[in-house]
Specification:
The protein is an alpha+beta fold. The chain contains 12 helices and 24 strands. Strands 1, 2, 3, 4, 5, 6 and 7 form a 7-stranded antiparallel sheet that branches. Strands 14, 15, 16, 17, 18, 19 and 22 form a 7-stranded antiparallel sheet that branches. A 6-stranded antiparallel sheet has the order 8-9-12-13-10-11, with helices on one face. A hairpin with a 4-residue loop joins strand 3 and strand 4. The longest helix has 32 residues. The chain starts with 9 loop residues before the first helix and ends in an 8-residue tail after the last strand.
Length: 572
C-alpha cells in the first residue's frame, strides 16, 4: 500500500482538486453522500470526536482496508498491524484520499467509494488494481499532527507536538517566556536557550520566533521548519558564543523546537499608546470597575530612575481608596484601573500627558519633575461598582441618581472637561430613560431631568464640534417640549456648522416667534444672515463662471467678434 499510494505527484493534483471540498460534510451513521462534484462518496460507519478535521499539510495516521467493488481486498494496514502515515494534501496518496480524509474527525470510521479518476485512472496499479477501477476504502482516522504554513508563503511550517491550554495567543505588545532549540537540517545544534523572555514585536534570535509565537497557546510546543527568509537569510549568522554557538551558513533552513511557557499580557490602555499596562498576575472573574466605582488598591509609584514617589497599601497599611473617573488620581491611573479585575496585579507605564504633565508635582515621598514618565505597580484589592439603572429597585432611586449625575456633569462642564461631562449627562439620562412605571409626579421630575441633561449634553457636543450629535440631542428635547428656546437655539447652531442653513433659519424663526427679544437667538440669527450672504456670493461667482464658459465667440459685422449665449429654445 505504501508503494501504491505514492503514485500521484503534488504538482499533478493541486490545481485539479485542492479547492473542491470546502463545506463540512455532515452525515449520520449509515448515511452515504457524495463529496464534491467528482464522484467521490462517503458512508459514515462510526462517528468521530469533537469538531476538528485535518487540513492540508497535516500529518495524519490511519488504518484502512482497500477493496474492489466485487469485494476483492488488495491492501490493508490492519492486516499488517501498522497504521499508515502521510502528509495530507501533498500528493503523497491518491486524490480521493486527500479529498475524503479532510472531512473526517478524530476516531471516525468511514467507507469511501472512489472513482477511477480520483484513484489510479486508466492505468490502474497492476497486478492488484485493474484499469478504470472504482475502489472502496474502509478508513479510520486515528490521529493527526497539525502542520500549518503560518505565514501562507511557505516560509514557516509549524508542527504541533504538544497542545497548549485555552485559546488565547500572545499579541505584539506582550512579553513571552519561551524555551527554544535551533538546528540545521543535518541536525547540527545552532542555539539552545531556556526561559528566554522577550517582547513579541521586538523579536528574538530570528524573525520566525515572533511570527510563530503569535499563533501559539500557553504550554504549546512546536517544531518549526524555517526557510532562510525567516531565519538568517542570504548572509547567514556567525557564531557569537552567547546567542549562536555554531555559525549558520547562508540560505540555511532551520529546524526550531519552540515551547511557549507563559506570557505577560501587555495592552495599551489609551488609543495613543501613552498608558501601557503589563499584567503581572491575572485577576478573578470578568467584572471590572465602571465610572464612579469605589476602588481599593495597593500601589507603588516610581520615576524612571527608580525613585519611589508614592507608596500606599503596603506594610500593613490600609489599601488606598478612590472613586474611578472622578479625578481623584492622575488620568492614567484612572483609566488603567477600570481595565483591571479584582486581584489583578499590573505594571503601568504612564506618559506625562496622563501623569503630572509639564508642571510636575510634590508627592508624599518625592518630587515628580515636569514631563516625567511614571511607572506604577498596582494591585486591585477590591471595588464596588457604581450602580447602573438595572441595579436600582425604586423609581425614586433612579431619579435621585440621575440628579446626582447631572450635578457631576455640570461641575465638569464648568471646568471645561466636556468629555467627562458628556459621560455624566448620558448616564443620568439612562437612569430615567424608561419611565412607564413612574408615578405622574415622578414622570414630571424625570422629564425635567431629561430636558436638562440632553440640553447640557448638546452644549458639550457643540464645544467638542460633534454637531450631528448636538442636533440629535436637541431634537430629543423638542420631542418633549416643542417650544424649548434653548433646544431651538442650540440646534440652529449645529445646523449652521454643518451648512444646513435652511433648517437653521426655520429653528431661529420659531425661537424668535416665541421670544423676539432673546439676545442669544438674535445673535445667532445675525451669524446665520452673514453665512447666507457668504454662500450667496459663492453661488453668484460659481454660476457666473459657469455662464461664461457656456458662451461662445461669433464674428460681428465689423469683422470683429462678439460673445453671445449658446442657442436656446426661441419659444421659451
Amino acid at each position: 500500500m505504501d508503494e501504491d499510494f505514492d503514485i500521484p505527484a503534488a504538482d499533478e493534483m493541486n490545481e485539479e482538486f485542492m479547492d473542491d471540498i470546502e463545506a463540512p460534510v455532515t452525515l449520520k451513521v449509515g448515511e452515504e453522500k457524495e463529496i464534491g462534484n467528482q464522484g467521490l462518496k462517503k458512508k459514515l460507519l462510526k462517528e468521530g470526536e469533537g469538531w476538528d478535521t485535518p487540513e492540508s499539510g497535516d500529518e495524519v495516521e490511519v488504518h484502512y482496508t482497500g477493496t474492489l467493488l466485487d469485494g476483492t481486498q488488495f491492501d490493508s494496514s490492519r492486516d499488517r498491524g501498522t497504521p499508515f502515515k502521510f502528509t495530507l494534501g501533498q500528493g503523497q496518496v491518491i486524490k480521493g484520499w486527500d479529498l475524503g480524509i479532510k472531512t473526517m474527525k478524530k476516531g471516525e470510521n468511514a467507507l469511501f467509494t472512489i472513482p477511477a479518476d480520483l484513484a489510479y485512472g486508466e492505468a490502474g496499479s497492476p497486478p492488484t488494481i485493474p484499469p478504470n477501477a472504482t475502489l472502496q476504502f474502509d478508513v479510520q482516522l486515528l490521529s493527526w499532527v497539525s502542520v500549518k504554513d503560518i505565514c501562507k508563503d511557505g516560509g514557516i511550517f509549524k508542527k504541533i507536538v504538544k497542545e497548549g491550554e485555552k485559546w488565547e495567543n500572545p499579541k505584539d505588545l506582550d512579553e513571552v517566556l519561551v524555551n527554544y532549540e535551533a538546528r540545521l537540517e543535518d541536525g547540527t545544534l545552532v542555539a539552545k536557550s531556556d526561559e528566554v523572555e522577550f517582547k513579541v514585536e521586538d523579536g528574538h534570535f530570528c524573525p520566525a520566533l515572533s511570527k510563530a509565537v503569535k499563533t501559539m497557546k500557553k504550554g504549546e510546543k512546536v517544531i518549526l521548519t524555517v526557510k532562510p527568509d525567516y531565519g538568517f537569510g542570504e548572509k547567514g549568522k556567525q557564531a557569537s558564543g552567547d546567542e549562536v554557538s555554531v555559525s549558520v551558513p547562508p540560505n540555511a533552513t532551520l529546524q526550531i523546537t519552540l515551547e511557549l511557557l507563559s506570557w505577560k499580557i501587555v495592552t495599551s490602555v489609551t488609543d495613543d499608546k501613552k498608558v501601557i499596562k503589563k499584567i503581572l498576575k491575572e485577576g478573578e472573574g470578568y467584572e471590572r470597575p465602571n465610572e464612579g466605582a469605589v476602588v481599593q488598591v495597593k500601589l507603588i509609584g516610581k520615576l524612571q530612575d527608580g525613585t519611589v514617589f508614592v507608596k500606599k497599601g503596603h506594610e500593613e497599611t490600609e489599601p488606598f481608596e478612590f472613586k474611578a473617573d472622578e479625578e481623584q488620581v492622575i488620568d492614567g491611573l484612572d483609566k488603567a484601573v477600570m481595565t483591571m479585575k479584582k486581584g489583578e496585579v499590573a505594571l503601568l507605564t504612564i506618559s506625562p500627558e496622563y501623569g503630572f504633565g509639564s508642571t510636575g508635582s510634590t508627592q508624599e515621598l518625592s518630587v515628580v519633575p515636569p514631563n516625567a514618565t511614571l511607572t506604577y505597580e498596582i494591585e486591585l484589592v477590591s471595588f464596588i461598582k457604581d450602580k447602573e439603572s438595572w441595579d436600582m429597585t425604586t423609581t425614586q432611586e433612579k431619579i435621585e441618581a440621575a440628579g446626582k449625575k447631572k450635578e457631576e456633569g455640570n461641575a465638569f462642564f464648568k471646568s471645561g472637561k466636556y468629555l467627562k461631562a458628556v459621560k455624566r449627562y448620558e448616564k443620568a439620562a439612562k437612569f430615567i430613560e424608561y419611565d412607564t412605571n413612574f408615578e405622574e409626579d415622578e414622570k414630571k421630575q424625570a422629564k425635567v431631568l431629561k430636558v436638562t441633561c440632553n440640553l447640557n449634553n448638546a452644549a458639550c457636543q457643540l464645544k467638542l464640534k460633534d454637531y450631528k450629535q448636538a442636533e440629535k440631542l436637541c431634537t430629543k428635547v423638542l420631542e418633549l417640549e416643542s417650544t424649548n428656546i434653548k433646544a431651538l437655539y442650540r440646534r440652529a447652531q449645529a445646523y449652521i456648522n454643518v451648512a444646513d442653513l435652511d433648517l437653521a433659519e426655520i429653528d431661529i424663526k420659531k425661537a424668535l416667534e416665541i421670544d423676539p427679544n432673546n439676545k442669544d437667538v438674535r445673535a445667532v440669527n445675525k451669524v446665520l444672515k452673514e453665512k447666507i450672504k457668504e454662500y450667496n456670493k459663492k453661488d453668484a461667482k460659481f454660476y457666473g463662471n459657469m455662464f461664461a464658459k457656456m458662451t461662445k465667440t461669433t464674428p460681428n459685422k465689423a469683422g470683429g467678434t462678439k460673445e453671445e449665449p449658446m442657442s436656446i429654445d426661441s419659444k421659451a
